[in-house]
Amino acid sequence: MQSNAQLEYDYSIVKAFTFTTILFGIIGMLVGVILAFQLAFPELSNLAGEYGTFGRLRPLHTNGVAFGFTLSGIFATWYYVGQRVLKMSLNESKFLMTVAKLHFALYFITILLAVVTLILGITTSKEYAELEWPLDLLVVVWWVLWGVAMFGMIGMRRERTIYVSIWYFMSSFLAVAMLYLFNNMEVPTALVSGYGSVMHSVSMYAGTNDALVQWWYGHNAVAFVFTTPIIGMIYYFLPKESGQNVFSYKLSVLAFWGLMFVYLWAGGHHLIYSTVPDWMQTMGSVMSVVLILPSWGSAINMLLTMKGEWQQLQTSPLIKFMILASTFYMLSTIEGPIQAIKSVNAIAHFTDWIPGHVHDGVLGWVGFMTMAALFHMAPRIFKREIYSKSLMETQFWIQTVAIVLYFTSMWIAGITQGMMWRAYDEYGSLLYSFIDTVTVLQPYYTIRAVGGLLYLVGFFMFAYNIYKTATSGRVLDKEPVNASPMAS
Amino acid sequence: MDQETLLTIQGYGKFFVILFVFIVFYSYAYSIYKRQRTGERDFEKYSNLVHDDSFDSTPLEKRDNSIDKND
Amino acid sequence: MFHWLEQKPFFFAVVLFLTIAFAGIIEVIPDFAKQSQPTVGTKPYTTLELAGRHVYIKDSCNACHSQLIRPFKSETDRYGMYSLSGEYAYDRPFLWGSKRTGPDLMRVGNYRTTDWHENHMMNPASVVPGTVMPAYPHMFTNIADIETAYAEAYTVKAVFGVPYDAEGMPKLGTLEEAQADAMAQAKLIAADMKNQSVKDAVANGQVPEIVALIAYLNSLK
What is the CATH T-level fold of the domain C47-219, as seen in this structure? Predict the structure, then answer.
């Protein structure tokens, strides 16, 4: 050991991002629950005038959970895992420390501004890219700062080989940079004409081209925000928490490259039966099915990591979270390709099955894995024991029930509505008017809303548990190696 | 160049590039398993990067340019 | 050769980026030229319609309504002729949507009237019992931003060559001319409406959001 003895990993940035993960998680999920109840009970739609309607709140929900909650979780785990597996500390470089702090500050400001502008209805309307151009520029700045911190940290590393988790974080950085830039190409109208609102811009692409670029972005934003960094997390946290080696490191390397190559091709499945060229729709379909292979490669690798140690699933709620997360990853990566098959897509597209699919992915996979990562980090960054194991256990079961309620109700709702839209009577006229296919969904919307509410309740338990850990958990004198210590 | 030619070029381009990537991918897979079998490089030991990650532990493989060149 | 990939982060990042970027280059770029050709008869939006489109976007109507009719009998029977690529040539951004919580609106101008929209936007349940759509009374009082609509039309004309002011196409002209044209179109719509405060506002030279929105919805054919 040549390094300075008083040097250690710096977790100040990790703590800041942990805080925003919880804060934006609460905001994003709360708005989601409100939206779910509005669909079940439309009287709730106009409680806050124009600022409380479904249309205004929906972008707030999607941006809040994707770019608030999930991205915060990704950044928190990056600054944690990155320092540790590269064996370098942010303390060693004033420059990188400043970059990381600036990264956090600008990120936080941007998301707060996003909340305000979206509520005011300042949006480009492109899904997951709703922010208008001044905010887009801010996003670019802190994304670049993240890249500087990332490559700076890699450049300073002591460990020669870069662990596979870092690969996933790098792919996320590179891909989102490219996708975000191209999809948000827009011309600010006030700058060109000299008239009108400064915030307004117009897309560089028109019609079908705009749709193509948007779904090339939209699909892969899901890939590189909701999938690859989360895989990066599980490749670190599951082996670490369980004390097991990754089942096959070689498989993890191959699954990585497979995923990188195939994922980008699958975006076309959002545009099946639309006006984009046929070959591209078919390509989207086929590649979506091929995508099962690398996805399941990672997921199975994770499950088999627990080989011979399955009793941990019983004893540790943290392992429960991670194993269920990879199970939900398997579920949604088989469900997605099924929906991408043309004949299935004809029924599923535009229905509630799609939000159902998204949510078994994000609630089960992204949500569970992010919370598990935060739980694992808490004793290390706060140097305290986790406040309550039984609370964690209760949270796990409440949220698991919540997810099951959510996706089963949405499956039924989606398929019911899809079938009703295409039902004909014996005289060859449409059997149902549109509103018939809406009113029939009321019970499923109610079940979904209850599911969402339960998940939010579980999230509050999580927030409370982390808060109590940070403030009143038993102080640890030594950093735990594998299993995180928790008070019963 | 008209639309038809463009599409044809696109088709051929796509086919050959996918073929190329396919070959590279499988030769990489083969090289990993060969190197593991011959003992040239033990990939599975990298799992330890996770377990042995405290700040004052010795790196699994130190960064050293002379090793890099021979590897 | 693969050692590089595993241990040289810079080289690794380049290969990784190429792998990721590759699909986009092949998939997206070559079809760009073809897809942006307008079909015969497709015209850019007038200033007022564009202002209405901004209202549509502001309240994220596209979160629940698609504007894309797929080529199935069940869809063409319900919504009309299936969508053609060229029909979207002036749509910036596209508004296909991804979810039909409400019906498709691609050709809503063919079968709904100003009067229907007025009642429906004020209180959807009074027109469609059992609907889950929120009411939009604020659109009757909020004033539409004609100037920004003009700025957008001016920009697409200048930057992307959208044929405003060409023969048989909508006139744009200067801001004052465009505002006057928008007012004239707004008066025609207000004449078909019952809401007194909207009529008063239009008579005073202001365009409430609902008028612009209805102009836009009526233009969807």
Answer: Cytochrome Bc1 Complex; Chain D, domain 2 (1.10.760)
